[in-house]
Structures are given as structure tokens and as C-alpha cells.
Amino acid sequence: MIPLDTPWIYLFNLLPRLVTPGQLPPECDIDFYRGIHDDLAQFSDDELRAHFRNHGIQEGRIGSPAAHRAGFLATIPDGDCLEIGPFTKPALRGARVKYLDVLDRIGLLERAAQHGYPLETAVDIDFVSPTGRLEVVPDRSFDVVFSSHCIEHQPDLVRHLSDIERVLRPGGAYFLIVPDKRYCFDQSLDCSDLDQIIAAYNERRTVHTKEAVVRHYAYTTHSHSIRHWCGDHEDPHKDKRAERLRGAEKRYADVAGAYLDVHAWQFTPSSFREILKRLRRTGLTNLKPERVYETVWGQLEFMAVLRKATWSDKLNPFR
């Protein structure tokens, strides 16, 4: 029988109390890990690190108060912040928070009403960008950029990171919440690799490829994260694969080269960390992965922080 909820559901509500804005807990916070998991109470620090690396990650044990979105959002420092793609339910609030989306508030409300999304939490959009690009945002204007389930939609990942780097002030950070492809509808798809990402950059893509559209509409599965954690990945519509393929090709043809919103990229925490390290080593980004937290059992997303490199960091991209 598949459980209905995660084993730490009540803990998640307490996580904001365990972090401090502007201070990022380690990916494996030893004291937290020991305190949360009773069976590890007698482990030494080294034994705890080894346990998390060899068992905890695979088991989905929460290893840090910032590994879940509740705690992660509470670590975002005070400062000028840009939230990308809030739709009608922003994650961040405050006098120093600005918002960027593809439509203005009225347009987002109309779209939300069509799809049954909440209306009462909508905010005014400070930067309207129909393409989702950040050209409308001034250089070095923010200390923090935040996005949730956004980066995987970018046709050109490298250019998106370049845009983020441009609008961040020195030492600024990009806080991201990213779907883990193992626990959402992308489960059966391969992780994206560096060659694919560089190809998109060289082609200066602004829309998704036919391959990405077909993958999304014909080869994805359900997005019930707990079922995935329990090993149930079966596509509930696998018997309609041929019909879905035809539908995907028709959708792609019907938009005639316009943007069709699908996932361009699939990541896990480890693959995301490695992609960012390699992009930095090749000189394609100056954003370095400062934290990539592991996915918690029952969840379909992981948290990451990319820091804008300093001059000393740029001199040593392997650091």
C-alpha cells in the first residue's frame, strides 16, 4: 500500500525556525541529521557523513533543514530580490521583492481563471517579458534571484544563466527549486547531458525542439511523487502511446515555430551539480553551485543555490 504522506510532514512546518536568513546550512547538517533520525543518534560525525552519502541520500532521509522548500525559502537573505515566474502564487513577499513573468497581473489572472488556479494571491508584475528572458531587468540590480520549477523550461540554459549573472550584484545568489526527474512525470527520461546544453546554446534556441515536445507529450508518466518513491513509475496512459505521438507532432506543427511550454531539461541533484561545475570549467557561466540539497523522501523537487563568482573564483574555476 502506498503511503499518503511523507514521514516528516509535521517537521516541514518547523523548518523555517531552524534556519537563519542569509545563512545556508550544509547539504548534510550533522547535528540536524543526528537529531531527526533516532536510529543514528549514537553515530559519530564521520559515521553520519558516511551514512548520508551511502544510504541517506538513496533513502530520501532529510539531511538539512534547507533540503525542503519550507526551510529553503527561509534561508533567502534580506536584500533586493527578483522572483521569476510567480504566476498568481508568489513564493516571496516583501517591499524589496520584484516579480518577472510573461504576462502582467491582469493577463495572469485571466490565465489562472481558465485553469482553476488561485486568484487572491496574485501580485503586480514589475517586469513583463513575453519571452521569459531577463532583458527588461537592469544590470546588477538584485542581490538574489529566485525561481521555482523554471530552469527546466529554458530552451537555452546557458543564456538563462548568463542573464541571471548579469542582473545579480557581485556576490549575489540564484536560489532555485528544481524538479527531480526521478519523482515527477519525467521519470522515464534520461538526465540531460552537457553536450545537449551546449548544442542549445550554440543554436541560440528560443523555443523548444520537436524532440522535447514529443518527449513531453508522448513519453512522460504520472507525477505522483510518493508513488515514484515507492517504485511505481508506470505510465497510466502507455496504451495510448501512438495517439500521444501523433498529438505531440500535431501540437508542434500547429504552433508553427512559436513557443510551446515543455521541459527542455531533466535533472537530479547530482546531475545538476555536475552540469553546473562543468559549465563553469568551460567558461560558459560564472555561477558556481554553492549548495545542491538532496531530494527528500516523498518530494519531487530539490533546492539549489548558485553564487555569482568573485574575481578570485574566476581565476580558479575548479575551486
Description:
This protein is α/β, with parallel strands linked by helices and 319 residues long. The chain has two domains: 7-180 and 265-309, Rossmann fold, CATH 3.40.50.150; 194-255, no CATH class. The chain is built from twelve helices and seven strands. The protein has helices at 9-12, 30-36, 45-59, 69-74, 105-115, 157-167, 194-202, 210-218, 225-229, 241-255, 269-281, 311-315; strands spanning 81-84, 97-101, 127-128, 142-148, 168-179, 287-292, 301-308. It is globular and about 60 Å long. The mean pLDDT is 95.
Count of the separate structural domains = 2
Number of helices: 12
SSE pattern: HHHHEEHEEHEHHHHHEEH
CATH superfamily of the largest domain: Vaccinia Virus protein VP39
Residue share in helix: 25-40%
Strand content: 5-15%
Q: Structural class given helices, strands, pairing?
A: alpha/beta
Q: What's the gist of this structure?
A:
With 319 residues, this protein is α/β, with parallel strands linked by helices. The protein has helices at residues 9-12, 30-36, 45-59, 69-74, 105-115, 157-167, 194-202, 210-218, 225-229, 241-255, 269-281, 311-315, and strands spanning 81-84, 97-101, 127-128, 142-148, 168-179, 287-292, 301-308.
